[in-house]
Amino acid sequence: MTTLPHNPEILTHTDAGVMTLTINRLDRKNAITSHMYAAMAEALEAANVDAEVHVLVIQGHESIFSAGNDISDFLNQPPATADAPVFRFLRAISSFAKPIVAAVCGPAVGIGTTLLLHCDLIYAGDNAAFSLPFVNLGLCPEAASSLLVPQLMGYPRAAEVLLLGEPFMAETALEMGLINRIVPPAEANALAQRQAQKLAAKPLSSLMETKRLMKKGNASMVAERMSEEGVSFGRMLQAPAAREAFSAFMEKRKPDFSAL
Q1: Which of 3, 51, 115, 245 is the most interior residue, by most CB within 10 Å?
Q2: Residue 2: its pLDDT value, please?
Q3: What is the mean pLDDT of residues 55-61?
Q4: What is the rounded CA–CA span in Å between residue 73 and residue 50?
Q5: 30 found inside a domain
Q6: How many CB atoms lie within 10 A of CB 166?
Q7: Is residue 48 one of the residues assigned to a domain?
Q8: Is residue 195 one of the residues assigned to a domain?
Q9: Looking at the 3D structure of the chain, how many domains does it have?
Q10: Could you tell me which residues come within 8 angstroms of residue 211 by beta carbon, excluding any fewer than 6 positions away?
Q11: Mean pLDDT on 184-213
């Protein structure tokens, strides 16, 4: 049985074969810090080897899934090496051998959207708003999203969401194939739990082998792309465009990229 340290911002609970991971930092719009990434990575790593866990559920609140990286924490503790908590989390979720069900309501910004590319079933509230604003921050995509988004949506739509970085709503996400179903926000977490319970009642060996076979064709490419993105991301984080973008964000002004 998995026993994890208590973390009030990343809640974990296991019942009847389902581990639920809840992002719980509503006062900061569920923005994710290094400490939270480490806690999520630890939870995924533990669940992956715990025979009593058949399914993982990732959820936020009915008003918000995640605002993405906590910018202040991100600037104070940038992911400088492959062992940084954010990269540990991305490796853990992308290689997780058991089904992952996600419930997404409200904004899902940056990694709040890219982590969904590694989930198996995704249920969204009709208030869900997805965005991949990496270019707007002077950065590049992460979580192998530069590979997976074009595969999922086709290149023209991928170019639109990754190059423009504008939010898209639940109906568009459904049409693009990112999510499975749209429900009222108050019902999303409960639906994810019901679907997870259905999965948990099935043979774990069958679930894992079916997922392995479906993911096999992409597995090495995902790991390679994630590594390449990480190198580029780290380099771009130190470049003038990112510095201007983050300064503008902290100063609550529009960034000026005219000289860049």
Answers
A1: 115
A2: 62
A3: 98
A4: 31
A5: yes
A6: 11
A7: yes
A8: no
A9: 1
A10: 97, 98, 99, 120
A11: 98
Per residue in 102-111, pLDDT tens?
Answer: 999 999 999 9
The 3-state DSSP class for residue 122 equals strand
157 within a domain of the structure (yes/no): yes
Q: Tokens representing 51?
A: 């025979």
Helix (H) or strand (E) segment spanning residue 169: strand 168-169
- Look up residue 65 and give its amino acid: F
Q: pLDDT at residue 1 above 60?
A: no
The rounded distance, in Å, linking the Cα atoms of 181 and 132 is 20
**Cα 37 from chain centroid (whole Å):** 11
Q: What is the DSSP pairing of strand 55-59 with strand 100-104? A: parallel
What would the two tokens of residue 1 be?
């049985």
Q: Which residue segment(s) compose the domain that 54 sits in? A: 1-184+206-254
**Which residues lie closer than 8 Å to 15 by C-beta, 6 or more apart?**
none
- Could you tell me the CATH number of the domain that includes residue 156? 3.90.226.10
> What is the spatial distance between Cα 78 and Cα 70, in angstroms, rounded to a whole number?
11
Residue 73 near residue 25 (C-beta atoms within 8 A): no
Length of the chain: 260
